[in-house]
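Support request, please re-run this one:
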Amino acid sequence: MRNLLNPKWLLLLNTLPVVLLVLLCYGEFSVIQSLLPPASVQLWQGFGLGLAGLGIGTLAYAGVQLRRGREVGVGYSVLALVAYSAFLLLYMGYDAELVPRAVPRWMIPTEPFLYTITLLMPTLAHALFALVVHWTPTERLPTAAVNFVLAFVAPLAWYVLLLVPFSAFDSGHQGWFWGALFAVTLAAGVIGFLFFVVRGAYIMGLKRGEDAEFHLVWKLLIALILPVLGLLVNNGLFFGRLMGGETGVFGNFNDPWFYALAVLNGLLLSVPDGNNPRQRLLVFLGRSVLLGYTLYFFIVFLPFLPLSVLAVLLIGLGFLMLTPLVLLVVHVRELGADLEFLERFYPRRWLRAGLVAGFLTLPLVMTGRYLHNRWVLHEALAYRYSPDYSRRYSLDEQALVRTLQTVREHKERTDDFFQGKHVPYLATYFNWLVLDNLTLSDQKIADLEQLFLGTPLKAAFSEVTVTATGATTSTSTAVARPALTSLTSRSTYDAQQQAWVSWLDLKVANANTTQQAGEYTTLLELPTGCWVGNYYLDMNGRREPGILAEKKTAAWVYAQILNERQVRDPGLLAYTDDQHVSLRVYPVVGDAPRTTGIQLLHKEPVTLTIDGRQVTLGGPAGSSGATAAATANQEVVLVSAAAKAQLPLVRRTPYYHFLLDVSAAQVDNRTTYAAGIKSKFALPAADKQTRFTLVDAYTTPVPTGASWQQALAQHESRGGFYLEGALRKLLFEVRQHPGPTYPVIVVVTDKPENAIWGAGLAELSSAYPEGDQFYVLASDGRLAAHSLRTNSQAVWPDAPAPGTPQPVRAWPDAAQPRAYLPNNERADIVVNDAKIGLPQPTSANSRWQTGLLLHGYQQWQAFHPEATDQQRVPFVQASFRAGIMTPFTAYLALENEAQKAALARKQQQVLNANAALDVDESSQDTVTEVPIDGGVSLLLAAGVGLGVRGLRRRKQARGK
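Re-run finished. Output below.
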């Protein structure tokens, strides 16, 4: 421990944590600053200057001592204990003023108080250790037993001499003096208690050679028995039952590896000193490796050391909380003795290198394990949500099982004191390294398990019947909601961009004027070629323009504001699919109307329907008629309804493409497929153009001319029935190679409830111009139609019969068509190039043309999802520059600057992460983890609460 007096430790244990604390707290302050009253801002500035002064003073002292070649002195250690303890006590006293209750907690995912107590404790611990070294003479060692007695008697004496008299004066009228005296005495008592505990352990280490037998028993107790007992207590040993493998008091330390390392560490530290250099070297290296294990638990329990005094008084198990502290002293002392012995046989620099390498072993192993988890998870997410159709995937299912289990354990949060489900600090590291500080929703975990493992979803499958228009009948009782009361429009033709700029102005109000804080929601269908270019919401007597933000982030911020107990004023406008936009306004209170507006850019006049009201935007001026509009370089073309009507009408030849369910759950029913296909498709199935694809977790096409029945019999099933993936890959190939034929898709399965359907494939509609129907065939011959576009699980009774050719339009001509368009009276967007480039900041395109390019790129990306991760951020940034909303962005109107700052911070985090990860459970996009878990923070609050009590009294006295 003598090495702790080297001033270099101050740089690691003080300067680095203080700099990190300043940065973290400044990040929180910059978000909530606009919500703070002037008094709170002054407190932030005062504490910031105080912390900066302490940090600079310590750094200067370390520099002076390093230049002089001197050790850390007693004066510094005493001054550091007093100064930083005083800082923490003052911070505790003003914590409620620094972050008032009016500040929404979602804006500060981790309380600055937790940052402060966590990052300043290393400075206090180092100063305490330094005093122990200075005040423990090595020439004539004191008695360790006396120090332990003093340490254990101190809590009782503190209780008798301080709490009892203080309680006698607890009449509610004591002034600031009693509060300050209580806090100072409490801090001094805690420091004195910990000082004698550490000093006693240090003395035991120095006396290691005097009584070998006693020393062995002592090390077995500290290094083996108490750590294992602590793990058992954390696991619920004294709470009537063991909690199992998911929970613990201070965190989830129930993995068998924690117990194995605890036993191995205890045995290595208890090995008697030997004179064989090779054996001693092996023991030294083993102890070096496990130093990381000891140090980890020391760091975990470091913020709770002040609580150990209270725990000793109340429940008698506080001694277990002190075990990591004492064990670190023993561990460091044993390594020092090993070094002193081995330096006689080996070069000192190699021994130090071995110590460093050993210490880094466990962190590197853990990092390597997490990196493997990240790779496995991201591979699975890429295959499920952004696959490369030109690549053949084959994932390690067992590795994925372990990874998903780890994700589930690390992402769960709880505020129950006795239900800690996280591994402290490691969970934070895992979430940063593997999950990019986001999360993976339970729904996505279940989807991945169903896909790769064949695990059925818990929710029961229901076969809903829908009409041809997709309408369903709801049996839920209607609830009075805010409704549209006024709809007006204003349109201006912009000759420069040759497009209309129109505004929709909506007024909404409660039908029931007694309703408080209602939310107005509506769904608006936009015609092809109509883009959202702006948005506003009137709030507090002003017109607040919407902020164009990343879609998942905007939805998360909107949801957080709605969850506040205070009434705020957000508005959200976002795509639900490629043609529908959702509008949400909150709150609509009483009979007070709310006004909101949407700007639309469109080439031709359009008629829209909102809540049953129709409005026409634009006029005859500037109408393109039969002329197709395009971007400047012709990458994307908008074929208007009139222009499409002039394209040649053709009929393509249909052929059947059977998707055969070969998942693990369907193994016993494969033999019935041939009979079912023959009964419904005897002739077409024998046609040479008929195609077959085997579908489980992966898609395996049967080569043309090969026997599909033989391929079916020889196939080894893997995972679940990934129908959505098979449909996407098939439609991708159809769109990539447009020709005179098109597939009629028939899914063959007896268990459609086990299929992974997805919400629909509306974004791939250009691949099925003849119609969006496909069919599901059961082995008993039942044939049901479904829609590719939306609500794919629902049966579509009015769908056309299989194999009925429908005419389509060939673009640009019938001789060399590059695309086929549905024969209807709607405009279509055609992607004219194999690859679409995003608009650049210097682009000369008009806003409408930029919108066409963005939506064309979105259509291209739907067929090339492998580009999502690389191109998502440039796509979103291009949307921001143009002010054109896309399915990846949303308009959000916010009330104050703090909400906007929180939006910007969260958006940066989301854009830096994998696109398939979620922000939280509810929106499919979870709040990031915090350094100290929810339940454990309650324990920490209980420990410091006693010290804050007196300072709170002072505020009450002032109020009187």
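Residues 136-346 form one domain. The first helix runs from residue 8 to 32.
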